[in-house]
Amino acid sequence: MSEQQMIEADLLVTGAEIITMNGAREVIRDGALATRGDSIVMVGKSAQAARTVRAKKTVDGTGFVISPGFVDGHIHITADPLTRGFVRRMPEDSWGNNLAKWVIPLFKCQTAEDERLAAQLSAATMIRYGTTTFLEAGTVIQMEAVMEALGETGIRGRVGQWVEGRDWGSTGNESAKIDEAIGLLRSEVEAWPDDGDCLLAAWPVLVGHSTNPDEVWLAARHIADERGLKLSAHMSPRQSDPDWFLQSYNRRPLEHLADIGAMGPNVLLTHLAAIDESELQVLAESGAGCIHCPDAAFLGGMGLARQGLHPEMLDRGVTVMLGTDGMASDILSSARRMAAGYRDARGDQDLLPSTSLLELATVNGAKAMGWQDRIGAIAPGFKADFVMHDTRRVEWGPVFDSVGQLALCAPPAGVHHVWINGRQVLDAGRNLLLDEEKLLADAVQAGKALVERTGLPVRTPWPVA
Asked: C or N terminus of the chain, fewer CB within 10 Å?
């Protein structure tokens, strides 16, 4: 290659083992990765890079495994980060009462400053564990404060404001509530538009379950269609959703959504732990995707091991991505929980192998969000979102199979460096954009004040002296 044909790069990483997640799923030993601006411009062997790349900065990647940044498809970035240790329910409460008496009051009592702190704490935690892209769960109240706070973190994400269009008899004016919900959906995507290339934008994200009438579902779908966005919502984590839809419409949730025209390839539904075969067929035929949250499902006792159909979704060609749901921070740990739960339930140790787990956390997440040509893989032309995992830790030992070791046993603390959109945001475990010590101190105080405002009791399982 002549001098004129040299690849100009801002950054060159050499000597690493690269799990590319490209179409051929190549793993490159003694690999090199070059970036310019926000994109990857070269991936190959280090010897090749020495001949073809001229970089402003070179990093020695010896002893590191590089993966694409992970994608978290469902996370409550506010309230949960400030109150994760707060015991939110009484044993005698039903799931619905738990939401009404304990969970929702915590969300509703947040101030703009609470949500700002929580969003930054959530982003910092995701980055620390290698997550570079997320889809928020649709429970943000103070959007302006949240989007401003997230902009300081460098993370890539899509966020939705809390939208409920069902009146539940509180005012007796359902049409006004519907208009308000639709207006909110439109205003948020106009205020934070998605040009396909920005780090942060708003998508229509419904609370889901039974909280929105058909008009709101259809409006959200129309907004997603006309703007090239995705629509996301909670649905059927437990039998209560199917029971409600059967009683109200004489159809199960996904059957009803399909009948009214609310299902399609740009729809992502979270949980789907309590669907049946007919709904699985609807899901597969519609092209809609599923966001599976293993921590919420298995720790929440959703009966997933008994009735879950996520392996069947994958077999039918449904795009399944993973979410932590605010109950976890590390997407790879969620993937491992999914594999462990389903392997044990099915008595099949070969179910959901390590290759599938890495796909769920990377390329599947990218495809579900419509960005399979931008993120989720390390290849020229893709966004420079990547993670360097330090294998010089006792938990790694000698590296024989980097794919299996990263998917099944690598420690979350092994995330050493993180780049998002060509910008380094984590260096040797240190956040380069946020003062984490101050952020945590502020968040601790805000969380205590938030719980105090709810008037809910602080309880511990054992007596504290």
From this structure: C
Percentages helix, strand, coil for the chain (3-state, rounded to 5) are 40, 20, 35
Q: Residue 84 above 90 pLDDT?
A: no
CATH number at residue 57: 2.30.40.10
d(CA 296, CA 453): 26
Backbone phi, then psi, for 66, in 5-degree steps?
A: -105, 130
381 and 361 in a single domain? The answer is no
Task: Tell me if 98 sits within 8 A of 125, measured CB to CB.
Answer: no
Is the pTM of the predicted complex or chain greater than 0.90?
A: yes
Residue 452 covered by a domain: no
Cα→Cα distances 17→163, 326, 431, 453, Å: 44, 31, 23, 50
Average pLDDT over residues 422-427: 98
CB 426 within 8 A of CB 128: yes
pLDDT tops 50 at residue 262? yes
Please list the alpha-helical segments (H only) found in 293-390.
Answer: 294-299, 304-307, 310-315, 331-346, 354-361, 363-368
62 shares a domain with 96: no
Is residue 464 in some structural domain? no
pLDDT of residue 459: 81
Task: Evaluate whether 43 touches 31 at the Cβ level (below 8 Å).
Answer: yes
Percent of the residues in the chain that have a pLDDT greater than 70, as a whole number = 95
Q: How far apart are CA 180 and CA 429, in angstroms?
A: 44
Split into its structural domains, the chain has a count of: 2
Same domain, 96 and 80: yes
Neighbours of 2 (CB within 10 A): 5
Q: How far apart are CA 462 and CA 153, in angstroms?
A: 37
CATH number at residue 317: 3.20.20.140
* Residue 33: alpha-carbon gap to chain centroid: 25
Place of tokens 């140790």: 349
User: 314: helix, coil or strand?
Assistant: helix
The DSSP bridge partners found for residue 326 are none
**What is the domain range of residue 10?**
3-68+377-430
When computed from its CA atoms, the radius of gyration of the chain, rounded to whole angstroms, is 22
What string of DSSP letters covers 410-428?
A: --GGGEEEEEETTEEEEET
Q: Which of 343, 368, 393 is the last residue of a domain?
A: 368
Confidence check: pLDDT of 241 > 60:
yes
According to DSSP, the β-strands at 231-235 and 267-271 are parallel
> Are both 127 and 241 inside the same structural domain?
yes
92-130 burial code (b ≥16 CB/10 A, e <16): eeebeeebebbbbbbbebbeeebbbbbbbbbbbbbbbbb
